[in-house]
Amino acid sequence: MELTRIEALIRAMKDWDQQSDERKRITVKDLIFMVGFKIGYSPEDLTEASEEKVIDEFKTYILSLEKDTGMFEEFIVKALLNEIDEYLEGFLVNQARTIDLNENMIDRAKENEKIETGKFEEHIRYLKSPEFREVALSQLDTWRKVRLEYFSLQNLRGWESDDFLSSYNNINN
Description:
The structure is a single chain. The chain is mainly alpha-helical. The chain is built from eight helices and no strands. It has helices spanning 5-19, 28-38, 51-69, 73-93, 95-112, 118-128, 130-150, 153-172. The protein is elongated and about 70 Å long. The mean pLDDT is 88.
């Protein structure tokens, strides 16, 4: 195989970000933060760091996780792919719940009278708009296409074959 699974994951995330609708609400940095959190990755300066720096640090973290824990690359990448799928799908599925949470926050803020509710109200308007669903679906569709390109059956078989040959060579050397 030309790319490792980790390299394919990183390229897929970059391609997804580049191919996503220009009105996107989720960036590759957001995605890395959300899925990285699940494996203990917490960049210090996510908001200030460049996209490339965050991506490079994330890749380095995944490689160190594999090396330091002995987890298989296949397992780590499958877990991250599943988390990305769940996050992007959840963005749509949890739309109503997110609206409810924001409305509850507005109610509490109004009771408190010390918290500005404008941001919450603006966010709710966006969540209720047709644009939200359109953009979220577009980002999910783009992810599915990119994921299929990098993690096709042919590529998966190639990695399995490489793993087998590597194990065979390790046993015989």
